[in-house]
Fold these 2 entries.
Entry 1:
Amino acid sequence: MFPVNKKTNGKIKVHRKVRLGFLVGGLMLMVISANAQNEPFNVILQRVNNDLQTFVKDKALAEEVTSHLKNLNADGSWQDVNYTDAQYDPLKRIKDMATVYIRTSNKFYNNAELHSAIVKSLRNWLDKNPKNKNWWYNDIFYPQAIGQTLILMRSAKEGLPSELEKALIKRMIRKLKTGDGANTSDEALHYLYRACLTQNKATLDSAAKYLFEPIAITDGKEGVQVDGSYYQHGKQQAIASYGRVFTGNSVNAAFYLRGTAYALPKDQLAILVNYLKNTFLKTIRGSFYDFNVRGRGISRKDSLSSGMGGMVGKIKLFNPGNAAYWDASTLRTSGKKPVDYGITASHNQYWKSGYTLHLRPAYTFSVQTASTRTLRTERGNNENILGKFLPDGATNIQRSGSEYANLMPVWEWDKIPGTTSRDYPDDNGATVLKEWGIPGTTKFVGGVSDGIYGVSCYDLNYDSVQAKKAWFFFDREVVCLGAGIKSSTKENITTTVNQAWLRGDVLSPKGAHANAKGERWAVHDSIGYIFPQGGNLEISSKAQTGNWYRINHFQRKTELKHNVFKIWLNHGINPQNASYQYIVVPGINAAGLKKYNRSMIQILKNTDELQAVKHTGLDMLQAVFYKAGTLAANGLSLQVDQPCTVYIKDLNGKNPTLYIADPAQENATISVLLKLPGLSKPKSIDCNLSAGAFAGATASFKIKE
Ligand code: CA
């Protein structure tokens, strides 16, 4: 029921009655204004109540509740719950009991025995007043779960004794920690529950304020950044870790408060919609997250399953203007439509977070890096114990979406896809030695983008390994270059191309069957890999063992064994100026790869000073200048007076476009001198770049004769 309609009806009624006389009209007005006061509270309670029941499966939940009832002690406690360290249980059990109790479709509907069990277990909770060592349970989960149970029971035929409800509402009261991003909105949610349960306008005012407080753009602080990425725990990319909590809470709040006087204001709605459309939903391929956006949550079971549930569907109700987009997202992420449904080509360079996201209908390819401006992927609370190399140029390559889902317990953690690192004899070498974020070590980290294509670079200097790494993004392929690879450690230095679920055959001819020029290639799971200069290529396709506990101490120790496809280049021990080049071609089989026109990709330079690739098919040039210098190759010359990343579109046309960015985010102006085949004379451009929060962003220049 929409409150707007109710209000309209009410007003019409009032007008009619008013004509009948002052007294009658006055009485009606009093009734209406009392209703209007109750209205947002009851409307919101009803929406929360419905929301809590959206995905309930009656039979399965009844079975769980049967077992909860059987194991419930006479005093309302459970034997198997440690009340000195209570986590989700027992409040989750009580909430489940309340859910089945109020559902007419459930066999426990209005069940007297269940009602007394709910009352008993709530009284027991009240008396025990459990507290967890982790503040999150005390200040967020407990009051939220209590509020949800009370809201559910409000719709019961026989509700809770009012003194019990009052005492529990009092127990929900916490001091709000404001300005804490996702956590603030998490806390404000139980304020909303309490406000509606008590019909308290002042509480609702502050709940609405703090629920929506995080929907703002900040620079450098926790929350949504100017480039559309998300920070939490310092300057650390948290797009679908804490950003997922932010998104879920913001969507729920906007959904609950829609159409009321507390509805999400337009300017904030625009921020939320933009975050969802241009960042968050792009990180989900099919129903699986890019592993680069889950933060330390990568070490949790099922953490790549997006479980978008009904979230996207809710957005439609407060943002009908984008309905077609939300519908497509719902169908795609729920698996009802193919993974490419509604996907259009895009390329995002998140210069605040060192994250690049390249989307095509056929694939998703992302890169995560770290710089002196950001923090490396955190280990925290003994989660993500082995993720030391996660921000060192990790590449997430997805076709179906599930390529890495739940593979993390058996991953070899010094062979994270895309990274160049020491190859330790065991995974202890990949242990993150310090909890929470560690700053990156270099500043030349970033890239240039026109929104569809782009190039990214990473100056790697970590764990006694140095390399200049770059990624050139086109339509059918991504070209990956590495140069200046140096290390004096005793291990082999390797660049891992991929490490994913083994699915089907691995095809990779070698020896006499390999290309005469020394070129190598491989195909696995509809992704092709081309190594134009060969290299010491190693491929493994066998079972790997491990368990979740070794990467996350909250997880199980059960030993797992999974078949893994792993492909890497070995640069050997003590490399002093090693390099690599490989081209990833997603959405191809062996026959397709044979026909694939490799000559369109011209790798013009791959040194520790300059990496450049020309794509003749797309008529574009992309380059990373680690130093001021000149790129001269077949008829073109590109000179820059500062280190930068450059991309030129319509290279041979009459009106090429130059895109340029400074990955170090230091220079205000970069001078470029261009000699192009389509231009009758050299062109000199002083490229003014943005400063402040937009330092690192791309500037573009249309080149005219
Ligand atoms: Ca190893």
Note: The chain has a mean pLDDT of 92.
Entry 2:
Amino acid sequence: MALVTTTRLLEDARRGGYAVGAFNANNLEIVQAIVEAAREEGAAVIIQASQGAIKYAGIEYITAMVRAAAEGLDIPMALHLDHGTDFGQVMRCIRHGFTSVMIDGSALPFEENVALTARVVEVAHAVGVSVEGELGRIGGTEDDVSVSDREATLTDPEEARRFVELTGVDCLAVAIGTAHGFYRGKPQLDFDRLKEIRDAVDVPLVLHGASGVPDEDVRMAISLGIAKINIDTELRHAFVSALRARLEELPREIDPRKLLAPAREAMKEKVREKIRLFGQRGS
Ligand code: G3H
Ligand code: ZN
């Protein structure tokens, strides 16, 4: 099946009351782990590559691997740029066949974020590519941030309404208390804010930094409008832990396949666990 846009996947998700998993990939084994888990679960899936992943693997390899994976697959899949910050890089991804891009202008003042995002939307929509914008700061692990500082970084519902209206984005990444990477304590998600944002905008919402968020909070977030959930850290952890164990088990092994296969398997099981948590019933 040809790659599809995230807009299509997220519309289905909203109708079905589930979220689509967006998993970060940067090499062959990771692409295979994600696609195999999704295929076995009969679930739609988003493979996303960050600017760093593209730099590491090369955009030609990323797109070729994902296209090869999509061929002969009967589940819908999108290829998405994660946290694009540069207009030129976003255009490059569109030209290479990404079906969805994120333009992350969240570090910019509101008006500049709007201008950059609207510029991307205009081009992307002209060629049928979906756009994710971000408003509010998701940041790294930030347990030490004070409550008032935290408030200032979270997405403001009224600003979200204006942002969506002014830019025409297809989905919106919101800051409601999650952070990228491992959490030191239990993340405190602001569900009242999420509800207000959901009531203020009519596009699907995206949860970043979802690794380590307790299952019940993930379910609650989905019930309040989250339709795309980004997971990276937990996948890396599963992969590298299994690889470390294998290296210890076979210290003399020099065949990368024998070392990487169990890591790929561990990651696949983690993807499966997340797909089930996100509530998508296989077809
Ligand atoms: O954009 C990617 C994600 O937000 C992943 O966050 O590394 O905390 O799972 P995570
Ligand atoms: Zn993110």
Note: The chain has a mean pLDDT of 95.
